[in-house]
Amino acid sequence: MAFPNTVPRKRLVSVLLFILLLVMLIMTQSHKPTLAQGPISLEEIENPLIPQRADPWMYRHTDGYYYFTGSVPAYDRIELRRAETISGLSTAPTVDIWHKRDRGIMSMHIWAPEIHFIDGKWYIYYAAARTDAPFDHRMYVLENTASNPLEGTWEEKGQIKTAWESFSLDATTFEHNGTRYLVWAQRDPRVRGNSNLYIAAMSNPWTIIEPQVELTRPTYDWERIGFWVNEGAAVLKRNGRIFITYSGSATDSNYAMGLLTADEDSDLLDPESWTKAREPVFFTNARTGQYGPGHNSFTVSAEGDDLLVYHARNYTEIEGDPLYDPNRHARVQKLYWNEDGTPYFGIPVPDGPLPVRFRAASEEVAYLAHDGDRAILDANLTQIERSQFRVIPGLADADAYSLESTNQPGHYLRHRDGVIWLEADDGSEPFTSDATWQITRAEGRAEGIWIESYNMSGAGIVAQEGALVLGPLAEDGAGGGAFVVER
């Protein structure tokens, strides 16, 4: 992309003065580049977090450990791992806590285990088939009384019985106002489709109380591609509401996530209490190379931020049944919130380090962002992904950094003639130099950093009258030149 010639004639004088100032600043001492941490942890999480683990379920327990399980490609067992950090899960040893039976019930296709801690005991909900026939699954529960679920004995509590003896899977559970609920996917023999979502109260962790209530069935086009599916529910209670995410369509690149919402004071067993989003809230993004994101769970960071855990592939061409393609990888990213208290899922971020955001320290809510190819100071926040950047070793110097756009991978922030732009890397020396930055701690601001030009020492990205320009950085980090690093 050619660099646009947008500097107005009336600004030529100010630009010349600015260049003279930069010549004076060029002789100042540069800072050694170190990425300063902001108000939340910059734990080095990289996606994919755990390869070949579909239907990922992550839970942070009161013991400080993160617990993880998911579908293994062989569909023949249930495994658990734990670690004190999310990134630690990627290398944590696994423990096979249960294996499928040789024949009969629970002998085929062990799918989508979830781990829950209920009344001092551990429970795992999972689906298993009796034969290799399609849509033959039923839901089952395991129980463990040990303090560490990777130890102790897992007891089979049996099948969760529902109103019909039909294809059922993806059970999840939550408690609200003293009542425990089960949400699951099941095929109603009386209606068209592969699975709908249902909810029921529970008398214990493996028994529901009638009636079971239909929450949603595939009604929109995006839920009916390949198969008519609503499945993979996950529950999140926030901001006076109950949110249930679910996944729809076939498990290829058409797989996507929908959202149900109910007021926390409503009757959760009344279908009228629930509102269904017409469009998917999280779906394939070809630019970031993430296809078929879905079957999610929720967890929290050590700092209390909500995180979205899900699986996705890196390609669309699949030979045979997508269910037997092993490369649905477990991934994690931050979940954001709209001003009205509803979740904002954004886009599935590219593989590699999680992106960060740079908030202007001089502003209450304003972030370094881009609008197309133009760098802006964004206070609108309607599209979080345009303010997300991956901080990677610099294109011109591995000891410095480059800021790569999250929603336009391969495009970097660079400067020319005092203007900040987002451009695709053309491999040229001028580009790599102009798109490399010294990220240094701003003196006088404990949580602040400077984003200083690599090839113009003393000049960096500063906020100026609501815009972003390449300008002189004050020695104390004031004057709109300091940013705070956030997820």
Describe this protein's structure.
This protein folds into two domains: 9-40 and 356-486, Trefoil (Acidic Fibroblast Growth Factor, subunit A) (Trefoil), CATH 2.80.10.50; 46-352, Tachylectin-2, Chain A (5 Propeller). The chain has two helices and 35 strands. It has helices at 12-25, 429-434; strands spanning 46-47, 54-60, 66-71, 77-83, 95-99, 108-118, 121-129, 137-144, 155-159, 168-176, 179-186, 196-204, 207-216, 230-238, 241-248, 256-263, 274-276, 291-300, 306-313, 329-334, 336-337, 343-344, 352-353, 357-360, 367-371, 374-378, 389-393, 401-405, 411-416, 419-424, 437-441, 448-453, 459-464, 467-472, 482-486. The strands form twelve sheets. A four-stranded antiparallel sheet has the order 2-3-4-5, with no helix packed on it. A four-stranded antiparallel sheet has the order 6-7-8-9, with no helix packed on it. Strands 10-11-12-13 form a four-stranded antiparallel sheet, with no helix packed on it. The radius of gyration is 25 Å and the shape is elongated. The relative contact order is 0.12. Mean pLDDT is 89; it is low at 1-42.
